[in-house]
């Protein structure tokens, strides 16, 4: 190969690598899912009360709704309970900001204060919750509940998941301990209308009934696991003032369901 030809090849390869980085928007380096673990949350971070800005609807996560990477399951998965609710191991992405760590600590504390569930730093456990930091506006859980031998049980947050509210973190953690969306319960057709013609094909799985679900307690319009209303969904019954689709806190029924699944003797 001549020097001229070699130079042309090198220039071509360099331009391709540059274009790949431009297209993906991610510099060449450690992928988000493979980054090092950060330090466990501190007592101060668990006690932290985050401050949030005001957001327009378009500022919320683009796919907090389309937030389950589907692994076949139910609505409340009694068979997917973590074996020791008092010690669910977790690790954190090392790149979470102080604001993110505060919001995650606050969300976990709501479980600690209201249920027997405790998230604890991983030591040598094979199965654990892995919290990833992602730059794109997404919040999602891979699968629902516990998978023995599954290793890292992934949950991913972007800054939009905690910039304006902590409920999106509580929502994803509730997926991780074994709950699907409230509006996918087998009895949901008594409570809501799903407007299928208005739902994009890629989102329809997030509205499909979770067949074979274990129903725990009554339907909860105010659940942190319920999607908001709009062109995809309307209600059938009196909601008694519930804020449907709220992402502020676990509802009392959310807490009661968690306690029934994990804390009943």
UniProtKB/TrEMBL annotation:
It comes from the Eukaryota. The active site is at residue 172. Its cofactor is Zn(2+). It is an enzyme of class 3 (hydrolase). GO terms for cellular component: extracellular space. Its EC number is 3.4.24.-. Keywords: Disulfide bond, Hydrolase, Metal-binding, Metalloprotease, Protease, Signal, Zinc. Binds 1 zinc ion per subunit. GO terms for molecular function: metalloendopeptidase activity; zinc ion binding. The keyword Metal-binding applies. Disulfide bonds join 139-161. Residues 75-264 form the Peptidase M12A domain. Residues 1-25 form the signal peptide. Coiled coil: none annotated. It holds the Pfam family Astacin. Zn(2+) binds at residues 171, 175, 181. GO terms for biological process: proteolysis. This is Metalloendopeptidase. It comes from Daphnia pulex.
């Amino acid at each position: 190969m001549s020097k001229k030809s070699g130079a042309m090849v090198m220039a071509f390869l360099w331009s391709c690598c540059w274009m790949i980085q431009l297209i993906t928007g991610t510099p060449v380096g450690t992928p988000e899912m493979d980054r090092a673990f950060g330090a466990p949350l501190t007592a101060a971070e668990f006690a932290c009360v985050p401050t949030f800005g005001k957001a327009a609807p378009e500022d919320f996560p683009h796919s907090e709704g389309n937030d389950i990477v589907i692994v076949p399951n139910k609505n409340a998965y009694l068979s997917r309970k973590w074996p020791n609710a008092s010690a669910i191991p977790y690790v954190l992405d090392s790149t979470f900001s102080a604001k993110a760590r505060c919001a995650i600590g606050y969300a976990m504390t709501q479980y600690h204060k209201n249920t027997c569930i405790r998230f604890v730093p991983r030591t040598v456990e094979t199965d654990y919750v892995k919290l990833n930091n992602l730059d794109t506006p997404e919040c999602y859980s891979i699968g629902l509940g516990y998978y023995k031998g599954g290793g890292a049980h992934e949950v991913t947050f972007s800054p939009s998941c905690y910039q304006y509210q902590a409920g999106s973190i509580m929502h994803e953690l509730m997926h991780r301990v074994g709950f699907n969306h409230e509006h996918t319960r087998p009895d949901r057709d008594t409570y809501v209308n799903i407007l299928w013609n208005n739902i994009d094909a890629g989102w329809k799985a997030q509205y499909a009934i979770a067949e074979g679900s274990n129903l725990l307690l009554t339907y909860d319009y105010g659940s942190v696991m319920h999607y908001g209303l709009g062109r995809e969904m309307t209600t059938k019954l009196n909601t008694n003032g519930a804020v449907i689709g709220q992402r502020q806190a676990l509802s009392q029924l959310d807490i009661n369901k968690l306690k029934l699944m994990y804390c009943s003797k």
